[in-house]
Amino acid sequence: MNKIPDPKFWMIPVLLAGIMLPQAALAYVGPGAGLSAIGTLIALVGAGFLLIVGFIWYPVKRLLKKSKTPNRPKDKTPEQ
């Protein structure tokens, strides 16, 4: 009696093998699309860097600056 195994048993390894085995794309990326892709990648990396700087560095810098300045009374301007 030859019984076919459950599809769940063989489907996952077949899908993983299909995803992991390299295949040629046979595609051409022109110079315009290539430069656009490189520019987009540079912009995304720069945006991520500025995100880190904006949300982490500036508040920390402000806290450090507050802790270093002594508490002085404010100078009152003379009334005229």
How are the SSEs placed, and which strands pair?
Elements: H1 7-20, H2 31-68
Brief summary:
The chain has 80 residues and is mostly helical. The protein has helices at residues 7-20, 31-68. The protein has a domain at 31-67.
Descriptive terms for the model:
single chain; 80 residues; mainly alpha; 2 helices; 0% strand
Number of helices: 2
Write the H/E string, N to C: HH
The general outline is elongated
The major sheet is characterized as: none
As a percent range, the share of helical residues equals 55-70%
Mean pLDDT: 82
Task: Extract low-pLDDT stretches.
Answer: none
Helix and strand content put the structural class at mainly alpha
Strand content: under 5%
Distance between the termini: 109 Å
> How many beta-strand runs?
0
Radius of gyration: 30 Å
